[in-house]
Amino acid sequence: MNIWHALIGRPLKDREEQAVRVGVIEGLSVLAPDALSSVAYGTQEILIELQRAGITALWYVLPISAVIVVLLTFLVISYRQIIRSYPGGGGAYVIGRDTLGADASLIAGAALLIDYTLTVAVSVTAGVAAVVAAFPVLTPWTVGLSVAIVIVLAILNLRGLRESARAFALPTYLFIFMILLMAVVGLFKPLPEAPPWHSYITPPLGAVGLFVVLRAFSSGSSALTGIEAISNGVPIFQEPAPTRARTTLLLLGLFLGSMFLGTSIISYRYHIIPSANTTVLQQLAADIFGRGIFFYGLSFVTMAILAIAANTSFAGFPQLSSIMARDQWMPRMFLSRGDRLVYQNGVIILALVAIILIVGFGGNTTNLIPLYAIGVYLSFTIAMLSLAVKTWRNRTQFSKRAVIILVGMGLMGATLTALVVIVSLITKFTQGAWIVALALPLLIWGMRKIRRHYRAVADELRVTDYSLKPVPAKIVAVVPVNSINRLSIKSLSVALGLAEEVVALHVVRSQEPPHQFEERWEKWNPDPRIKLAVVPTQYRSVVRPVVRYVDLLSHQNPENHVVIILPELIVRYVWEHFLHNQLALTLETVFIFRKNVTVMIMPYKLQGH
Amino acid sequence: MNIWHALIGRPLKDREEQAVRVGVIEGLSVLAPDALSSVAYGTQEILIELQRAGITALWYVLPISAVIVVLLTFLVISYRQIIRSYPGGGGAYVIGRDTLGADASLIAGAALLIDYTLTVAVSVTAGVAAVVAAFPVLTPWTVGLSVAIVIVLAILNLRGLRESARAFALPTYLFIFMILLMAVVGLFKPLPEAPPWHSYITPPLGAVGLFVVLRAFSSGSSALTGIEAISNGVPIFQEPAPTRARTTLLLLGLFLGSMFLGTSIISYRYHIIPSANTTVLQQLAADIFGRGIFFYGLSFVTMAILAIAANTSFAGFPQLSSIMARDQWMPRMFLSRGDRLVYQNGVIILALVAIILIVGFGGNTTNLIPLYAIGVYLSFTIAMLSLAVKTWRNRTQFSKRAVIILVGMGLMGATLTALVVIVSLITKFTQGAWIVALALPLLIWGMRKIRRHYRAVADELRVTDYSLKPVPAKIVAVVPVNSINRLSIKSLSVALGLAEEVVALHVVRSQEPPHQFEERWEKWNPDPRIKLAVVPTQYRSVVRPVVRYVDLLSHQNPENHVVIILPELIVRYVWEHFLHNQLALTLETVFIFRKNVTVMIMPYKLQGH
Q1: ipTM of this model?
Q2: Which of A115, A449, A590, B208 is 20–30 Å from A174 (CA)?
Q3: A-chain residues within 8 Å CB-CB of B605?
Q4: For A484, which of B463, B540, B606 is closest by C-beta distance?
Q5: A564-587: pLDDT as tens digits
Q6: Following DSSP, what letter does each residue of B460-505 receive, concatenated?
């Protein structure tokens, strides 16, 4: 426990909770990196898809980016609305649950949990891959480095959110500043020469192909993943939490929108053609500022923001899983907050699964990148649809104009996001989308099983009738006695204290003198209430005869409760533990499946040494 | 347990013990391979050492082998005498204990245990190395194959000695037959041509150097390692065990002596010069029978006998460690015989340590070969010296001639074997003998510590005074209650049955409504004997307040025995286990160090599912 507390800090009291929550500025650096980091690849994904239809098709980056920013606006407005309605957090999951029912909410919740897990694995390995590309000497440690980063993230988050907020504020805000600076300079800096290949004339859609545009749109949509995190994690903000969460979301939307749109426009203005050797952001930086400090600074900060994007999941996963655990879809352990008031089991499980993914994929998780969008966009669709339905149901509470806007926006948003899900599933099925198509139903099936189990247990344990009261059980104590010593005396003393009927059980092996112990016992004559039972055995192990005797005893009197008292020597040093028989543990394991039989391990602490 | 029994067979009763013991023929194939396999390298070791002093020095293989066979005769006579005196087995350890005292016996016992462990690692890897040399495609699996063989040996020996006796009879007797056949044919077959380099004249000793001869002698002595195994494992023979053991030892001595002497003589007759590419046995087979079936057959059988030499250790180690455990030098667990009447912990520990050695040395344990002799010869020295001292002390019981023979032989044998220990330690110290020089004192130190611990515990627990009787303890039952349900009702029923004073302990977290549970409790009003204690906490974990309350309780009344009753849900499937809190286990771990506090885990078996 001391090592544990040295790692995660001293236990906190409940009233210290406000102090561990975050404000708007910190909240942005905890919950925004996932979304912001997608600026690093959003525009690039669109350009790569368009390039397949020829270089003139690159023009479409402009309208596609515009549509994505419109979708971003819808999402920000919708999720701000959702935060207002659900100040306890939970985002798409809770609004889906209350509006569309359990099935929809399960899909949204499970999809997000999968997405959060993938995000940790993918973004950490992406960051490490960038570092390893820069320093090839690190190649053998690729997996080790990734795992180490996940562990560091987990520890930071077990200490509390503010710790990671502080650690990650600098790269987050530096990334925002650098991208915006580049966008502004890139927009207004005079171009060195006239563009050689584009005509500023819209190429006809037919020439490009609707499907290419749809693919480019759905790939570019990955830029919006991560903006749901704030709505899931409302309770991590200081009070008034919903207000602060809404402000943070608005800021995130403004930053993300302008960064993404700016990047897309200047990449068109500078005729960036995606290349395998460098990123679009690097090409832009080189074209606008030259290969100087800004170029290398931006490369480094991009690397950092990719790695800490994982941190957003460490905020989102534990919050969402605790909300789903409250609804009994997840194991109860996700509900328990640790000494640092964090849902520590969520943090630990997330880190473990991410580490398994990283190790399983040998540190190369680029294959998982296409999976990102599907889970998040499923939850977007459910959130938008829920919002439309919810607004319509409560339409009397809104002005007519608000109803039209919210319902219209919700339906349009749901259609657009559903489109992204369908296009991604189709185009990326063989590239890995099948994993989500497989994992999602499995996870939902598991969650249903969990809930059924909890329901059944609760039904069985429930007391509806307060006339049901405890009735003193008749206790029979059984004390296995090997020889007469202080250990047996103490066990028998406790046995006499707790039961009317005490049996001292002595097992005699066939090659031992049969009556020796009985004679000693009679000479000792400890207490008239203790009955001595001598059980012969043909076998070597004493477990079998003890089990058989106890089974017989509880068969004769099923109403009795048999308590087997087993002394266990408590030694001072760990190695001494191996010097004593572990009969107590063995018997405890055997009897745990018997009804009305309990093993009581009585520690006997050795004094002298 | 089912998998376990499928592996090792059904449990056996004590009266079935005779059936699992071995006769002379089987005993030889269990206990002889270690000694017999040394024929594969004994002569070769002598030749390698002599070769350093020039080719004429090879003549010395004859007198050296003769001295070794004399030593073998001494050892066989002595150990037959020891078996007669100690029909319970234990060899050098028990005769050393009774004659020279605890220190000498500890040295002999510890040296043999180390030797048995090394034998397993070395002989298995030697066998695998031979196979891998024949089939280089297996190279990547060297370590895996060695570990697998150790596991198979362990399982065979857990099933019982007869199993391994049956499995290994064929290669053992085939090896004996082939070597003896080769010796006889090699002795009498006319030589094709006159010897070119030797003169049949004894080279002067000064020319060779006394030290070279001593080294050759001590290297060749490794041929005798393994003959002590029978005296350690007397109890594995069918009754009359000592007679059968003595017969087996005599047979082993005759076989080993004639095989070893025969090999040495024909290797001189055929002018074998040791080579790095082939073994002396292979050279002999090729010269005498040509490179035909016999040559390949002998190579294969030699490989097999090297590998199964490890099996001798699996018979010797568990027997010796059980005898030393009875004297409290080893942990008690080595005393417990399993369901198959084998000292199973000895088998398992031996296999584990050997596997650690194999993996640690990367499957290349040739460096450990020189260590063989030291441990065994230490035990030989102690056995021979003990025999001399013992005979002298009891000289009145023997005829004068017998006393002279036994004492003289014991002293001469002790001198010769001590010489081997000293020469081996000096010449092979840097080659690995330092490991024995380090491990032996360490092991002895550990054994002394173990005995001290057992003595101290026994002193503390001993009851010398039969007037000391159990006094009923005053029991206070504490039942942590979270809510009113069947679980708490059952726990409280058991609590009422076993204690006068029952406390229902409810922990309220600071953000929960403080009096809600108390009101429900009063409405329920379960039993006037149950006192409700509501403990508020500022922290998240309920462990802290429960521990604090119980500590206070037992501080107020140190005479009371506090029993904490913790219900634990017993689920049907393993995965369901993770759905419930493991509070019971946590509290059991915390309270195991408290005096007069016992945790009673009350299993509550769920019915419905």
Answers
A1: 0.71
A2: A115
A3: 593, 595
A4: B463
A5: 988 888 777 767 767 676 677 677
A6: HH----TT----PPPEEEEEE-SSSSHHHHHHHHHHHHH-SEEEEE
